[in-house]
Every structure is written in structure tokens, then in C-alpha cells.
Amino acid sequence: MSVTVGWSALLKPQWVPLLVALVGGVLLHSMNVLMLATVLPSIVEDVGGTAMMSWPTTAFLASSIVAATCTGHLTARLGARTAFCAGAVVFGIGALVCAVAPSMGVVVAGRFVQGFGGGVLSAMAYVLVGNAFPEPMWPRVAALLSGAWSMSVLVGPMVGGAFATWGNWRGAFYAVTILAALLAVVAARSLPRARAEKGGPVRIVPFGRVALICLAIAVMSTASVVSLPLAKLGLFLAAVVLLIAMILLDRRSTAPLFPSDAFSPRSVTGVAMTFALLVSIAYSPLSIFVPIFLQGLHGFDPLAAGYAVAGASMGWTVSSILVSGWSPHAAGRMLVIGPLAMAVGLGGVALLMATKPVLVLPVLIALVGLGIGTCWGFGVQRLMGGARQGEGALAASAVATVQQTGFALGAAAAGIVATLAGLSRGLSTQGIESAAFWVPVSFVPVALIAAVAGVRLALLAGRSDGKKQVVTEREQKI
């Protein structure tokens, strides 16, 4: 029998400081994605590195993937509270490196450090929810953590846009450094005193397979700075081969990162992982390049451009809340409608980005977010619910890894398309106009393939639910 707990239960004095720390960690991590999108044009103008514009994002996401796989190891060795505080400190150090960076290469290095700290913060937030709160409170706390992403829609562009408008993009990273330090202090005082494990088996970090993931992302990012089209294609294919090799090795491992049926076309979890990867890839180019397009083609200031792109994140959050309680039958339809809406939004942005006036562009940008929001939760639900016996934890932990890998691969692929379209020659109007069409239109096929995967997932999930219902009815008769 399930127990429903109202919001008032979370207002007890013993819970409030803990909630502040957990929500603060997720907010600090998520706001930096949108903040970077807002200040990136200012960074390029100051230190150069036009061809490397996708690298700060891919470095951040690749490092977050590493952190996601290391979180269990860190918790066992350090304890949950120490690991969370360490994540905040590392995040602040990365922000400080970005603040003093003399070149785009150093910015990328700083973002890599930030990504590891942010990945620990996000992963540890959910670990601490399970450790510190009674199970009936989990849905409410999870909703608060999701709401932190909505808050980042306002805070990220506001911080980045304000400093960029004042001509001081470095100040944004100094501000983040201070916030990270404050979070570490709050967490040290409010999180439960969870001790590190002494003795017993210690979870081993699969460095080899993690290295393959990061190498694949690095190879794809390198493709954005090479000049020969054949070299770009070769590096792209090499990255795909590395990812496939990682999955094959993982299936043979005694300590796998993913479920045994990862990306299988014949299982619910396998198709759901493919679905999650595809919609994450399709969503990723907006936050990196659309602010540059809006500033270069329409004279938007950094703050306005950041908020225009933030509409996609807001659409994701709002639509996910609205559809979260829908029936399984309606959920199956959303698995198809969501990616199709993303395809329409991306196609519209490609066709209308260079036209004036730009009133319809925010609507199309928001449509991409609405699309992923209507289908993401149902895809994740099937990914976790379809896991094989004994692999529930693997399926749950794979969600963040698949999402971040999709974002990283999409960002790297967008960088390749942008350079091929002419953006590598500098932020000229002609180069921006060409990239403004080819970058979003190149991801329309990805969204359409995701819709096909959504059809497959809905059919498989329907059959699985039918089998479970038959088994339940038999057990009741017995």
C-alpha cells in the first residue's frame, strides 16, 4: 500500500537545511549550462577560439559522465557528506580557472574540472535523497530537484547575461566560485554525517570503459577543428566505433556500467536507452549556437539571447510537470509526439532564424523544449521499469550517463556542422547565417529517428505491461 505525503511534511526544521543544500547543488550545476551559452560569444571575442566553441560544453559533459560513474566509489571511500562538499569545492576551482583563463584552451580545461564537480553534485543529490529521507517523501523531493532546473532558466542567463552586458564575462565565473564555496559551507553544516565504508568490497571505477567514452567525445570534438571534410567524417566514425566498443566490453564485464540489454532493439530498456540518447542529441545544439545566431543576426544583447534559449528549458520543465500523471496509453503517444514536436521546432528555427521580425523564433525554440519534456519522463520510466531482474540499479544509474553522453555528442556534432557551414572563419554575418540554417536542420533527422524509436518503445512497453497484467490476474486467482 502506497503512502502519499504532502508538501507540508518537507517543511519540518530538520529537513529544510538539507533541502537547501541539495537543491542548491543541482541549481549550481544546471545554471552553468545556460550561463555559458550567454557568455560564450563574449569569451570568443576576448580570447578567440571560434572553432572550439563546442569544446567547453563537451568537456563539461564528458567530465560529468566520469563523475557519474565515480560517485558510488567516492561515497564508499569518503562518505556522502564529504563527497558532496568535495564536489562543490572542485566545481568552484573549475570556475576560478575559467575566470582567469587567457585562452579558449584554458577555458575548456576549467570547464572539464567544473564538469566533474557538477556531476558529483547532481549524482550525490539523488543518493542523499535515498539515504536521508523516508521513502514516501522521495517523489516530493525529486520534484523539488527537478524544479531547480526551472530556476536555472532564470538564474543562469541572468548571471551570464548581466556580466556579459557589462563587458566582464570573467565576473560571472568569479560569482560562481563564491557560490560554490558557500554551498560547500552550507552542505558541511546541514548534510547527515554519513561515514565512509570500512572494510568489505569497494566498488571499482571502470576506468577503461569511462576512458573510451571520454575518448569518443574528445575525438568528435577534434573533428570540429580539422579542415578536411574527409578527416571530419573519419573522426566522427571513429567516435562511434569507440562508443560501440565500450558497450560491447561493458556487456562482458562483471561490474557493468549499463544493463545487460543496453541499446538492444528487442527489449524495453534497450530501446528506451536508444530513445533517451537520440532526444538528448537532438536537444543539445540549441544552448550552444542559438545565442550566437541571435546576437550576430538580430543584434540581441547577451541577456536577451540567453533568455530566448532558456525558453526551451522552461518548456521542458512545464510540459514534463503537466503530463507526468497521464495514463500509460497517453504516455505511449507522447513518446512519438514529443520527438516530432522537436523536429518541427528545429526545422522552424533553421528556416526562420535569418528572417525578420524574430517574434516566432522564441515559440519555435520553446517547442523543442516542450517536445522533449512531453516524452522524456515516460522514456526514463520505461528505461528503469523495463530492467531485467537484479539490474534496476544499473538502469537507474544509466539515465544520467546516457543523457549527458547524448548532450556531449550532440554538442560536438553541432560544432562539426557549424565549422563546415563556415563559422570557423570567424563570426562574420555570412558564416553565422549559413550555420544558423545547417546546425538546427542537421538535427531534424535525429529527432525523426527518435520518433521511430518512440513507436517501437510504446509497442514493446505495451506488450510488457500486458504480460505483467496477465501474471497479476493469475496470481490473484491462485
Automatic annotation (TrEMBL):
It is a multi-pass membrane protein. InterPro entries: MFS, MFS_dom. It is found in: Membrane. The chain crosses the membrane at residues 18-43, 55-76, 83-102, 108-129, 141-166, 172-192, 204-224, 230-249, 270-292, 304-323, 335-353, 359-380, 392-423, 435-459. Keywords: Membrane, Transmembrane, Transmembrane helix. It holds the Pfam family MFS_1. PROSITE patterns: MFS. This is MFS transporter. Residues 18-465 form the Major facilitator superfamily (MFS) profile domain. Its main location: membrane.
